[in-house]
């Protein structure tokens, strides 16, 4: 599958590299066509990796992973161009972190509590099928859940389009997620819940000095 | 031990009943001395249960459990009286839920994200040792963790006073919590993290139609 990865940070690199390992073709998108980290991403893969602007990547991808910083995600998708994202699935992995109050970050007030980044993206691009998932864990675990607890921990998913969620689940299965560990929380408004996991996630990370953990819903 | 339970709802009743079962003496406090639910609580226990105003209960307790609704907690503690809570441990189980935007509730803006109910209580009563714990799960599990997953799931704790946290951990042990499942997140500002669990908790509850679940940190 041709996949766009928007964002050149650790999350974009990890997601893009895993998708290539699984046989997909990835175009990494960034603000400019000659982004240094995107060039490094392309250089380290023998095949199936390319780079370009957000618009280049979105035009290329049959499905789009949003791996940009949450504060910049809506702008990045606007640069990608509404026509390039319309009708496609956008897998939103970003979190609306606000670093303006020091560490650990809080959530951007306008994109939390009674709203969310996932909803804001869906509202801004109504013809795009936004699926929120994977945003509650460190990127190493996103693409390799077996790294801890035998993979037996929970990944949340939400979005308005049931068929889009099914397609994303199939990709999650490729990453190693078992269906019984993927918990569908309903429509995209549940991003208010999953994005709000970050404040406790960051404090667990700080207390344990280990980011390679995830939550398992035990019932 | 003589323990005050502030609040006559399901959480207060569950915590108070379990404490009595464990041999403690409980006085349930409410806004008025003749609260109907507090009377029912007293009536169903053969011994060690009594009721009164918030002030009566706080004066009685060597340790105080705040089981009031989060929006009313600071006022309840003010009614309890600063002199009655000074120098004591206040175990804060409440969450600052805001029902004004419909269901599921969001968090009270002034008590979330860059602040928390736990911190507000600590700030309002600086001579009280506020310990936040148990607020991330259904009350049935608070006092009986073995009900799911053999008790192997995570209860967070935070607060500024290390000795107070140790005393609360000893009570948690009585409830059935093993030390390896009690995760200390540091000072009371970590209440910003644990109170922010509620938005995803409520959505998991809605999606699964089962409130008898908890999170386990898997690493």
From TrEMBL, chains A, B:
Recall the GO molecular function terms of this protein's record: oxidoreductase activity
- Per the record, a Pfam family? F420_oxidored
Q: Where is the Pyrroline-5-carboxylate reductase catalytic N-terminal domain positioned along the sequence?
A: 2-96
What keyword terms does UniProt attach to this protein? Oxidoreductase
Q: Please state what the protein is called.
A: NADP oxidoreductase
């Amino acid at each position: 599958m041709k996949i766009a990865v928007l964002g050149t940070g650790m999350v974009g690199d990890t997601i893009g590299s895993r998708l290539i390992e699984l046989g997909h073709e990835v175009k990494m998108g960034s603000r400019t066509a000659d982004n240094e980290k995107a060039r490094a991403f392309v250089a380290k893969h023998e095949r199936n990796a390319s780079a370009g602007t957000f618009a280049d990547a979105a035009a290329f991808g049959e499905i789009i992973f949003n791996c940009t910083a949450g504060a910049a995600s809506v702008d990045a998708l606007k640069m990608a161009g509404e026509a390039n994202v319309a009708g496609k699935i956008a897998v939103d992995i970003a979190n609306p972190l606000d670093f303006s109050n020091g560490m650990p970050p809080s959530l951007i007030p306008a994109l939390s509590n009674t709203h969310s980044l996932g909803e804001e993206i869906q509202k801004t691009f109504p013809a795009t099928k936004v699926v929120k998932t994977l945003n509650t864990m460190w990127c190493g675990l996103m693409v390799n859940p077996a790294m801890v607890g035998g993979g037996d921990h929970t990944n949340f998913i939400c979005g308005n389009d049931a068929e889009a969620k099914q397609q994303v689940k199939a990709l999650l299965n490729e990453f190693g997620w078992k269906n019984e560990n993927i918990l569908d929380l309903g429509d995209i408004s549940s991003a208010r819940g999953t994005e709000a996991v970050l404040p406790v996630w960051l404090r667990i990370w700080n207390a344990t000095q280990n980011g390679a953990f995830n939550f398992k819903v035990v019932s």
